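Translate structure to sequence.
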């Protein structure tokens, strides 16, 4: 018994030929199913409800981790898994959003074109309105005052300010820089620019100065002066210390000048005498000078000092003297301080001891009981006096923080006076410096000429001499410079009846390369219809022109924004049709109108943009039908069906291919039932798991299963019972919005099925003997899921079919499944309406050949 086998459905739907002459494996109906990579028929998965949305939400967009819808009302309570982004009208609080015109993703965030109840469209990125698309338009304002306020609010040139007042905008520049202002307007707006203030340089403040010179002074130290002539210093016990300033001869609070730590006291021959003459008494005084001075700046750091003199000429016993000087800053306060010498033993009885000490004062030392101490014969410190600058007054205010002793020299003393004045600058505001030995006093900042003629006076004591005293003079007050100002006056006063017109203002700074433009940008007032993200820019279609944003910034669209610009496509190919879509095709951007396609190479630098090719007599009627298929093809909906762009073998030239020709008549017939608006609203997406192209047009979804490696190019349809308004893909998921419901294809687990009706209708098959009568005997199926098989034998009555079997598994193990019918062709129809997955792998019809039809009686 011969049989007919159909085991490859790789051609899918094909409406190009009659149902009596179509090739085996093609289908006349394939509803709610598609063709697998192996050429089998497979039921689609369920469109499971993902979220029920509140009213007044619009659109659908996905990013890497979020599903977005949009609206202008206060954020409603949203279902889990859906993010609401509020897009508010920038001017009207009563014009609510009515639809999402377009959405895409830029920088991982939504770029949305929204339309509102007043008919205006605004562009948003990440929820914020993009000002370049609306600022500076008359239609957004009821008066010039609100327009002027908007212009000033959107001014942002560093160093400049813009302030609105009524119908004017005053632009003020930085410093004394001169700049120019021009306007660009369209009717009915007019504007005039008036330069109201020329710039002037500021006059800097000069601080007034007074001065004085320290021209004399000396240190008047208190001192005592031991003098020896005959003393036998060799017989003296070692000297342990020289004490100054004890409160009494027996007190232990005197200051030590020697810091002697040796095992024996200081002797006349402890160190080698290197200068002078004299007896051993003179040598002793030399030793005391040496050790005292060594401890003046080191060791004890007591600030006392010693001088020594030897008076030669006497035979064997030359006299010598020792001056012990108190610190200069003690002045007269050191007068009367007693001076004591401490010995290792009692010095009584030493020859000439009375020249060095007062023998009557010899007593046990209060510093160590085994030592002895006595006051010097020369007596207490005397002749000390103060020599210092006591105060410095300017205009009755003492600016010297503390009195300054005359030290070493006039110039050294001037240095300390300068420091004493500057120590209080934060309090009195004056500061001092020294120039050529003269102390200069500068007035506080901000006083200017008011400090002139302030009197400078200096109070001193002792030997200090002040000269060249001058009052404050030379001060000059600060005079503020004037900036350049321009006033832009805008007319008419009311814009209520003037919905068109716009204004931009250009500020040209001679030190800035590009002029600064604010107000209406090149895209202000335009209503974009669709957009695409490509090469770090957003490209938007408006009429016949493609506008593109700045490089790496979807919020900048104006003349001097780096990389922004526009191309009027009507200037590059005849006609002035509106653009109807963009699509990425290989390394080019395909720009569609209804009747042609232009292929462009686009560069970051707009000057390098280049038109590469024009395809005439084909075009797109629905912007959202344009979808890239991998890296090599681009599908779109045209008036004559679903078309693609692809490269010719071995060339880089694109052409309109016939990938959709198998279902042209089906698509065209379906389009004939729709309005232009419904056609324009067609939505496409590439299902990311198997890479199928879906195109939702009205209530149908046309599906392309395209697997070149398996030589499969097969169309089918999905009928969901709802009209898709938006598609969005994320990862391996496809979301579809219809009304206020979002559906997820395959459900949350990606493998959910429903009981939607699957219809597989074969053309009338003739076993390649179209003129022979055949008697159908039986059939076999390789299937999954529950199927009902119906067979027709009269192609003139295609609606008449008999149910042959209902089966949920392959039939080869069931024995013969009989059927009875005679005809030249067999018309098979299969239906699945059960829940769960379903598949058809092959169909076998068993029959007996009969005579050719022309021989039948």
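Result:
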């Amino acid at each position: 018994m011969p049989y007919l086998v159909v085991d490859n459905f790789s051609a899918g739907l094909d409406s190009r030929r009659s149902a009596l002459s179509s090739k085996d494996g093609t289908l006349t109906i394939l509803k709610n199913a598609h063709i697998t990579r192996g050429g089998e028929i497979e039921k689609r998965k369920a469109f499971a409800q993902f979220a029920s949305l509140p009213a007044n939400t619009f659109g659908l967009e996905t990013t890497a981790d979020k599903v977005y819808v949009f609206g202008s009302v206060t954020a409603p309570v949203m279902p889990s898994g859906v993010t609401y982004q509020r897009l508010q009208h920038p001017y009207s609080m009563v014009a609510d959003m009515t639809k999402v015109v377009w959405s895409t993703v830029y920088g991982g965030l939504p770029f949305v074109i929204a339309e509102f109840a007043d008919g205006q469209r605004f562009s948003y990125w990440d929820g914020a309105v993009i000002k370049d698309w609306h600022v500076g338009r008359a239609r957004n304002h009821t008066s010039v005052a609100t327009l002027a306020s908007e212009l000033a609010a959107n001014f942002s040139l560093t160093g400049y300010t813009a302030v609105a007042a009524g119908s004017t905008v005053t632009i003020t520049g930085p410093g004394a820089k001169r700049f120019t202002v021009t306007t660009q307007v369209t009717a009915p707006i007019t504007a005039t620019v008036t330069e109201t203030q020329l710039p002037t340089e500021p006059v800097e403040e000069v601080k007034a100065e007074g001065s004085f010179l320290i021209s004399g002074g000396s240190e008047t130290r208190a001192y005592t002066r031991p003098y020896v002539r005959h003393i036998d210093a060799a017989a003296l016990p070692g000297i342990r210390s020289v004490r100054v300033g004890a409160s009494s001869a027996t007190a232990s609070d005197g200051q030590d000048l020697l810091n002697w730590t040796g095992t024996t006291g200081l002797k006349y021959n402890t160190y080698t005498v290197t200068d002078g003459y004299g007896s051993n008494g003179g040598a002793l005084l030399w030793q005391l000078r040496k050790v005292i001075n060594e401890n003046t700046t080191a060791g004890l750091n007591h600030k006392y000092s010693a001088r020594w003199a030897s008076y030669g000429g006497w035979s064997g016993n030359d006299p010598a003297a020792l001056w012990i000087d108190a610190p200069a800053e003690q002045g007269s306060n050191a007068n009367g301080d007693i001076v004591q010498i401490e010995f290792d033993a009692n010095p009584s009885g030493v020859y000439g001891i009375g020249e060095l000490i007062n023998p009557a004062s010899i007593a046990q030392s209060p510093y160590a009981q085994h030592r002895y101490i006595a006051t010097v014969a020369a007596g207490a410190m005397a002749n000390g006096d103060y020599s210092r600058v006591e105060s410095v007054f300017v205009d009755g205010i003492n600016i010297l923080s503390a009195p300054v002793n005359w030290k070493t020299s006039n110039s050294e003393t001037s240095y300390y006076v300068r420091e004493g004045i500057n120590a209080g600058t934060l309090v009195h505001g004056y500061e001092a410096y020294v120039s050529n030995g003269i102390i200069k006093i500068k007035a506080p900042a901000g006083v200017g000429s008011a400090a002139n003629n302030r009197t400078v006076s200096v109070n001193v004591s002792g030997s200090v001499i002040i000269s060249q005293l001058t009052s404050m003079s030379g001060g000059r007050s600060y005079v503020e410079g004037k900036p350049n100002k321009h006033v832009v006056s805008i007319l008419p006063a009311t814009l209520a009846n003037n919905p068109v017109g716009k204004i931009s203002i250009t500020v040209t700074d001679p030190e800035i390369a590009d002029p600064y433009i604010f107000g209406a940008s090149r895209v202000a007032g335009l209503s974009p219809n669709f957009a695409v993200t490509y090469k770090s820019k957003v490209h938007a279609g408006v009429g016949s022109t493609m506008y593109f944003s700045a490089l790496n910034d979807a919020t900048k669209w104006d003349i001097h924004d780096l990389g922004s610009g526009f191309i009027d496509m009507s200037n590059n190919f005849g006609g002035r049709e509106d653009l109807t879509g963009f699509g990425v095709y290989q390394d080019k951007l395909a720009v569609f109108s209804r009747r042609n396609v232009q292929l462009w190479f686009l560069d970051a630098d707009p000057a390098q943009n280049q038109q590469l090719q024009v395809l005439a007599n084909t075009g797109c009627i629905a912007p959202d039908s344009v979808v890239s298929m991998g890296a090599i093809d681009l599908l779109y909906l045209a008036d004559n069906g679903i078309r693609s762009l692809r490269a010719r073998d071995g060339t880089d030239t694109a052409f309109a291919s016939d990938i959709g020709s198998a279902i042209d008549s089906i698509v065209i017939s379906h389009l004939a039932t729709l309005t232009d608006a419904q056609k324009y609203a067609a939505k496409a997406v590439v299902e990311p798991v198997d890479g199928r192209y879906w195109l939702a047009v009205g209530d149908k979804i046309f599906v392309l299963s395209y697997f070149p490696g398996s030589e499969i190019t097969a169309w089918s349809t999905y009928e969901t019972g709802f009209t898709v308004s938006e598609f969005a893909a994320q990862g391996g998921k496809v979301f579809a919005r219809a009304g206020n419901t979002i559906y997820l294809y395959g459900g949350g687990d990606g493998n959910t099925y429903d009981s939607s009706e699957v219809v597989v209708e074969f053309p009338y098959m003739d076993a390649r003997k179209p003129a022979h009568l055949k008697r159908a005997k039986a059939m076999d199926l390789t299937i999954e899921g529950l199927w009902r098989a119906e067979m027709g034998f009269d192609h003139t009555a295609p609606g008449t079919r008999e149910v042959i079997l209902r089966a949920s598994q392959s039939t080869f193990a069931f024995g013969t499944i009989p059927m009875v019918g005679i005809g030249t062709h067999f018309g098979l129809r299969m239906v699945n309406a059960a829940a769960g997955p379903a598949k058809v792998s092959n169909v076998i019809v068993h029959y007996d050949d009969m005579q050719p039809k022309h021989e039948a009686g």
